[in-house]
Write a structure and sequence with these properties.
Blueprint (H helix, E strand, L loop, with lengths): L1 H27 L5 H8 L3 H28 L2 H21 L3 H10 L7 H9 L7 H9 L1 H20 L2 H22 L24 H9 L1 H31 L4 H32 L3 H21 L6 H14 L3 H12 L5 H16 L2 H11 L2 H23 L3 H24 L1
């Protein structure tokens, strides 16, 4: 029975991998297509940055709503709904024939972008805290890998299919198929079932409570998690949106040059999510501060190597490639560890909400990153935009991680005490 249960939870991971990979392909596909879209609609970088910011703002606004719904209702069914919305809105953006309509429909694609907190929360009920970092790293592997596949679709498949609209029809259709797989293939679990103290117990169904939601805001670790989240997404949004254009316009790469330069870098980036989560789990087993230590090292070294990469002369293509590869090793290390840290200090019934609030804070500022980068690029160049925004943000993240180190151990122990108390209550309830 245990073997069958273990096999099923990995099936769930497989379904979620498919959901996140295809969703990330759909989400990131637009970035290498920006020159074609801008040319068709005859718009500036600032206008295109505004389109990207619009989708991010929609996702940002909806994070708290998704988080509450996930903690209140069945997460698996809501994830199926999110996948359906992804497919439908992608089709709408492909149909749009004018720039205002395209901007509006592209904004609607942000509705499902705020759906991940429920997925991570449900995974936390399939896997205990000692494994979560590597599982989240595996799932987040799909983000850069989806970026890579999206790049291939944009540069090689889209022209063969007749343009950027055709690939949107393809990815939108896949979203509808994944919705069916999640609806029928993923079971809901009681919140907190995988906590060490509650394993092997038939626990009750814990649901969202305002009392526990308020406790999240009292945990000082979360204060610094929120602060680093606000700063930490700026670099990602700038790089994912504008880096292809930067390579083409300012480093004189053609499409083949972009593909063969970025493909291995993105593969390294994807694998580093798994590396970061695995290192975080290893360090967490030794000290509750472990995940934060791994995260702080990642952002600091990522900033250092990106600085040298962007300042590499154009003719030194090999040096640029090596430095960007080193940047890719360290950039994603904090991401799976931040999610795991949120769940290390918050009660199971408010984890989706806590994660959603963290993402809300992340996105509320960083949603303007593509627009800000576009403005700086129009005033100066993309090199300046990437360098100023990314280095500043990562240095701030390093400072905020140092702050979290002072409080995370106490907050982790507080949650473990709460779970031990619940285990006693559940045993007493079952005995009675």
């Amino acid at each position: 029975m245990a073997k069958k249960k273990n096999g099923y939870r990995w099936l769930v991971v497989g379904i979620f991998l498919a959901f996140m990979l295809l969703h990330q392909i759909d989400k990131q596909l637009i970035n290498p297509l920006l020159p074609d879209i801008m040319s068709e609609f005859e718009i500036t970088k600032t206008q295109m940055g505004g389109v990207m910011t619009g989708a991010m703002l929609v996702g940002t606004i909806l994070y708290p709503l998704w988080g509450f719904l996930y903690d209140r209702f069945a997460r698996s069914k809501l994830l199926a709904l999110a996948s359906f919305i992804w497919g439908a809105t992608t089709w709408l953006s492909a149909i749009a024939r004018t720039f205002p309509l395209f901007a509006a429909t592209r904004a609607s694609t942000g509705i499902d972008d705020s759906s991940y907190p429920g997925l991570y929360s449900l995974v936390a009920d399939y896997f205990g805290p000692q494994m979560r970092g590597k599982i989240y790293g595996l799932l987040q592997f799909t983000q850069p890998f989806g970026y890579l596949v999206g790049m291939i679709l944009a540069l090689m498949v889209a022209p063969a299919l007749g343009g950027w609209r055709s690939v949107f029809y393809l990815t939108g259709g896949l979203g509808l198929l994944v919705a069916v797989a999640i609806f029928f293939g993923v079971k809901e679990l009681p919140r907190g079932q995988a906590e060490p103290e509650l394993q092997n117990l038939e626990i009750g169904q814990y649901r969202f409570s305002w009392a526990q939601a308020k406790e999240v805001l009292k945990k000082r670790t979360m204060w610094f998690v929120f602060l680093q989240g606000f700063a930490g997404v700026f670099p990602w949004n700038v790089i994912t949106v504008w880096f292809f254009t930067y390579l083409a316009e300012e480093r004189n790469y053609d499409q083949n040059g972009i593909l063969f330069t970025m493909a291995p870098i993105i593969i390294v980036l994807a694998l580093s999510y798994i590396l970061g989560g695995t290192l975080g789990d290893w360090a967490f087993k030794r000290t509750p501060k472990g995940r934060i230590l791994v995260s702080s090292a990642g952002v600091l070294l990522g900033a250092v190597f990106l600085y040298f990469a962007i300042n590499t002369p154009i003719e030194a293509a090999n040096a640029f490639f090596v430095l960007m590869t080193l940047t890719a090793i360290f950039m994603p290390m904090s991401s799976p560890n931040v999610i795991s840290t949120v769940f290390d200090v918050t009660a199971p019934e408010v984890r989706s909400t806590a994660q959603a609030v963290e993402y809300f804070i992340e996105s509320s500022g960083a949603a303007f990153a593509p627009l800000l980068a576009g403005i700086i690029a129009d005033a100066a160049n993309l090199q300046t935009a990437i360098l100023v925004i990314c280095i500043s943000a990562w240095l701030l993240c390093f400072v905020f991680y140092l702050g979290a180190l002072f409080f995370v151990e106490k907050d982790v122990k507080s949650l473990r005490s709460m779970m031990a108390e619940r285990a006693v209550q559940e045993k007493a309830r079952q005995a009675g």
